[in-house]
Write a structure and sequence with these properties.
The structure holds two protein chains of two kinds.
Chain A (H helix, E strand, L loop, with lengths): L3 H24 L12 E6 L6 E2 L5 E13 L9 H8 L3 H14 L5 E7 L1 H10 L6 E11 L5 H4 L2 E3 L2 H6 L8 E3 L2 H5 L1 H5 L3 E7 L5 E4 L15 E3 L3 H10 L5 E7 L4 E8 L12 H10 L9 H4 L9 H11 L13 E4 L2 E5 L9 H6 L3 H13 L4 H13 L22 H8 L23 H12 L3 E3 L4 E4 L11 E3 L7 H13 L14 E13 L2 E15 L6 E7 L6 H17 L5 H8 L1 E2 L1 H9 L12 E2 L22
Chain B lengths: L11 H22 L13 H21 L2 H6 L1 H18 L1 E3 L2 E7 L2 E3 L1 H18 L8 H20 L3 H5 L4 H7 L4 H19 L2 H19 L7 H24 L2 H10 L6 H9 L3 H13 L10 H4 L11 H34 L3 H25 L17 H19 L6
Antiparallel strand pairs in B: 1-2, 2-3
Helix pairs in contact in B: 1-2, 1-16, 2-18, 4-5, 5-6, 5-17, 5-18, 8-17, 9-10, 9-11, 10-11, 14-16, 16-17, 17-18
Classes of the chains: A alpha+beta, B mainly alpha.
Subcellular location (chain B): Membrane
Protein name (chain B): Cell wall polymerase
Organism (chain B): Gelidibacter maritimus
Amino acid sequence: MRKLLLLSTITLVGLIFIARLFYLQVYNEDPYNLLDDNAIRKVYDYPKRGYIYDRNGKLLVANQPSYDVMFIPREVKPLDTLELCNLLNISKEDFINFYNKAYRYSPRLPSVFIPQLSRMEYAVLQEKIRKYEGFYIQKRSLRDYQTTIGANVLGDIGEVNNYIIQNEPYYKSGDLIGKQGVELSYEEELRGVKGIKFIQKDRFNRDIGPYKEGIYDTLPEPGKDISITIDSDLQEYGELLMRHKHGGIIALEPSSGEILAMVSAPSYNPNLLVGRQRSRNFTKLYNDTIAKPLYDRSLKAQYPPGSPFKVMSALIGLQEGVVTTQDQFSCRHGYYLGSRRLTACHSHVSPISMNQGIAQSCNAYFVNVYRRIIDKYDKPSEGMDVWSNHVKSFGLGDYLGYDLKIGNKGRIPDGAFYDKWYGENRWSSTYNISNSIGQGEVETTPIQLANMVAAISNRGHYYTPHIIKSIEGDTIDEKYTTPKHTTIDKAHFEPVVQGMFDVYNTGTAYNLRVPGIDICGKTGTAENFMRINGKRTQLTDHSIFVAFAPKDDPKIAIAVFVENGYWGSRFAGRIASLMIEKYIRGEVTMEAMENWILTHSLENEYAKPYSGKEFGINRQSALQVIDRITKDTVINPVSTRKSPFNQ
Amino acid sequence: MQRDFRGLDFDWITIALFLLLVGFGWLNIMSASHTGEVVSYFDMSHPYGKQSIFIIFTFVLIILILALDAKFYERFASIIYILSMISLLGLFLFGKNVNGALGWYGIGGMTLQPSEFAKFATSLAVAKYISDLQTNMKTLKDQVKAAGIIALPAIIIVLQNDTGSALVYVAFFFVFYREGLQQIYLVVAVFLVLLAVLALKFNVVVAVLVAGLLIFGHHFFGQKKRPHIVQPIAILLLCLAVSFGIKYFYNNILQFHQKDRISLWLRLENDPQKLRELKQTILYNLHESEKAISSGGLTGKGFMQGTRTTGKFVPEQHTDYIFSTVGEEWGFLGSALLVILFVALLLRILYLAELQKSQFSRVYGYCVASILFFHFLINIGMVMGLIPTIGIPLPFFSYGGSALWAFTILLFIFIKLDSNRINEW
């Protein structure tokens, strides 16, 4: 027995050791990854970020160097603090603060002392920095916007957040990434691939040489330059016209689906989000919850489309064979079911056929057509589905698939929608006739509406709208060059296009004609509501306008949306006509119209809900006349009003 | 078994294991101590270069030891022991202080650590004393005398502030037990460790409660003939006193760094602020070595490819913490193999010791196994965080001339004795 004590103890200890080793090395082990090894310093070599050009080759976004003053607290030797403070334009207290903060973070690792010096500050400091041991200057690359427009299109870059770092291993803390717009959509092309050097560290965090003689090191791959489809002149003009208004403009090239202009108002100068001021400015823009300058209304705002949607009813009516172009319907200032007026209408001739129905925007006409479509089928839900599928073939009611990362689906109801609402077969076409005139349950975003017009101008097909024109050494996604066809036969488009043409000739946009250009358009006026102190309150109608031109060889399709602009031709129509002339003719001859837009503001209209007082809408609202806005008028991007909702 | 080749009938299995350990150790020392290109394996400016020289000198020692007559060791055991004690005492006069311990003689550029050599000297003396026909380890008188032989060097070493090296002499308990020490010592030893851990980890009340449960359990159910009730009560009171004694010892006598090590091992510290401080100071070595071992994974990063080893993240990595290099670069497979090599060597020595005909050889073999085992247990246990930090080298593996030579002498005297076991005495 006595022999066994040491023997068994040795064996036991051996087994315990192997178990412990197994626990430490096999069971408890995360797969070894060189990138996670904190004994290896990873030094990244950031490539040049790709430039962004507009469709005409004009440089919009380049890069600029920026200089950070860095320092390693331990290596700082006694110095002439006052001189350095003067050079950096900081106080002595700041100096002590920065130093202590960095020292607490790590005495041995570099910290940023002053970030993003301007070129001037750098020039002065460059001479003298050698005198201060432990301090050095690190060059970084920032975006340099060559323009003041297109903030919502171009987007901006910023430091990656924790969520991205955790989910995308490429990004490390402090890396820059596209946050919005094209910078976000084409992040991978623009950023290139950063190079990496692995450096062996010792336990004091000092470098002791390349890891394995640098066999894992990689060289950076420069970012690709891209061209976008925006016409920067048109974009700039659109932003100018939309000053002091809220809303969006989308202009497309129907033959390709390229986005010529994408205006969201109010906007801001993209240069605000560069450099040292970025975070302060971003906070300001973000906190403006009334004007919402960071909210891209051209892509995200979901409004009832109003009258422009009537052309859909006409097209579907013709396709379903429930109406001919000759059929006439009477209108007695509205559509009557028995003696009950379901929808009102303004003064025009009666009875009325399709052409004039579109031109005069007769509500009763389209309600009749709509009811015939739905009632053609045995069950209302069946008819509703047919109608809904036709509408959806124009790209409405779902994400369009364009190459910008934000948007909304809009809403096109189908049979199931109402079955759920009212119960199966417990409703009929009269329950939702508002859909026929773009009110009711129908909602669209400006880009969807513009795409719908592009499809009409092409007489039945469209290309998925996109912002990318070309990528250096690469091709663009095939889906942007493949046409999509609607469910309406080509022949049915002619009378509708003619009707839209007559909107300009004889109809609601008569005053907006542009001599020498055949424009087809459609006005729209949409009622809208807002909840103020818990009460649903009607606000002044939205002004909506869609158009394309020229009639037989469309070059531009446009949708304009002006919040609370009252009626279609008042703001949106004027802006659409001006944009079309600007694009097709290259200059604007309609000076009176331009002058009217530039001297009228809707700011007082937007202030009403927040005034806390009773206010009148539509007819009772007076136009606000301002000094003519010019390109150089500086706009305060940030509204100073306070919202009652976020107090 | 007939051995025909006199002079060459050494136990080659033990020698092979020894060579494997020394060779593997040298590779790891090179990995842990090289900086940049390895120009020469004998580059004296680096530990691995010095270790090469030490190893070469080791073979000279081996030949010398094996060449001497086996009876020489038994005959001169007392003299060797006395010389060794003198060399230890001499440190008080001529010693060199390294890292707070007065443990080295400086000779030219070299240093010698007599405490390493005292281990084999003490082993010889213990073997000699126990194998004496007059000695009976079952009697208290001889037990005290034997304890005196090991206590002398241990006390001197403690006075020289090298507690770690002194602790090794606890290993002789295994030898004494094998040679007749009563079972009660083992029970008391285990009981004391239990009491100490409980008293420190929880408190005296818990320790005494557990002790009481065990004592009365044994009193009422464990024995056929039940002694008087006073006896267990007296033992329990003794436990109480011992518990308080341990507490007092821990709080007032142990040095701060020793206290911290024990407190970390038993996870006594709960204040996160203090714990963070400890992690950067006392725990730093352990923390880094555990990280290095874990990062090795199943197969390791490869020889000379360990990033934490190359970055010198683990202080003292080529000496006491050499096992972390094995863990990082050779992975689970390599380190488990090393553990198996050690266990194999220890069991081989034990097996041979039991085969010995002379009691001297058997006791000495037991001493060798116990001492090597104790180093193996403490060193690897410490590097893996199983045992509080006690700085003693891994035999044959850690960098250092004195340790390597002393362990070699320790082992090869036994190999020589073993080769002689069929001879008449």
